[in-house]
Amino acid sequence: MPHDSPLRKLHETYVTSLTPPGKEARAQADRPGAARGQMIAPPEVEYLPYGCFAEGSESICQMIASFGGVEAEYAAMKRGAGLMDSVHRSVLMVTGADRRDFLNRMLTQELKDFQAGMVRQAFWLNRKGRIDADLRLIEFGEFIIIDVDVCQIEQTMQSLNEFIIIEDVRITNAGDSFHRISMHGPGALEALAIATDTHDLELDNLHAISLALDANGELFVARVDQTGEIGLELFVPRDYVERVWTTLLKTNEVGAKKRRVRPIGWYAFNIARIEAGTPLFNIDFGPTNLPHESGVLSDRVSFTKGCYLGQEIVARIESLGKPKRMLVGLKMGEDRLPVEGAAIYEKDGDQTGDQVGVVTSSTLSPMLGMQSIAFGMLQTSMTEMGSTVLVESEGERVSARVHELRFLPMKSDSSNQKE
Fold this sequence. Notes:
alpha+beta; Gyrase A, domain 2; Elongation Factor Tu (Ef-tu), domain 3; six-stranded mixed β-sheet; 21% helix; globular
């Protein structure tokens, strides 16, 4: 696998610990057919291929789908902290005295006032105004870390470097130096404080901090709330990643309070991020989309800054008022769960009209009584909140109500994102 996780062995060891010692042996020893005679299989790590699935290409990495209990993993994010191996994310390092000015001229977000400890999210567009990459930038005083999807890391590094002429800027792929871990849940900051022996640790949304691991190593942390709870994005030196992962899990054993720090996979995270209205690049929108179509325009684009690549297209659409399509939320009216790519149709009285969009993500929401919810890319004319469309699901076309992207209120503090 081109981009494998250094934590794979620890994951496999963890799931074997979920079956109490001797339980399997006792089950096998029981008389077949007796009340206690069924074989008890231990849970297994379930993986999902992840990559840029162009025709003929192979997956770049394997994401963990689940450690064997999606419900327990989701509960950890709501009650304690879910610890996620974010192997699908990678890291660019930007150094040099002109780094902020250069990136400000390239990207959609305002970076003139970008100071140490701040986090900004921005698009890297092409000349046609399409989104080449969705970037998360973290300033640490002497360098900027860019958190980027592993699929876009090489392309982003190379294309940005093409615009460096005489500027004092160096952009390098730091994916071999750092591994990405995430924690989501109300107990995430407490777990991190215990693991790093940091007293009174506080971190607002869209802010960052560095924590000492020892005399030679630092852990870089950015808070980005994506699931309706506290979200911590950790950039861990690869030499320390096993130790950091293990120490974070052990915080569950500290003190009398049960913190429920638990490894989680994509399935549980996906449920929570859809509930919280967090669309993702390469899933809900991608390289064929314009910023106005993404559903996260206000978090990524400044309309008061100077020029950047693709700005004319973005400004033109803003002046016209509406793009041709937009990402919205969908609440299903029936007990059906549409799949990714399912067609969405106009509801014309009692009839089915033309196709007007597609489903990009869907899930059953535990916080909404297991109601089916989804994101859909719809023609703008069909995106009025509360209007009804028809969605292809399980062989039928069932009604759904257009909803804002966020289905649940955010519990965490308000965003400090600059527009």
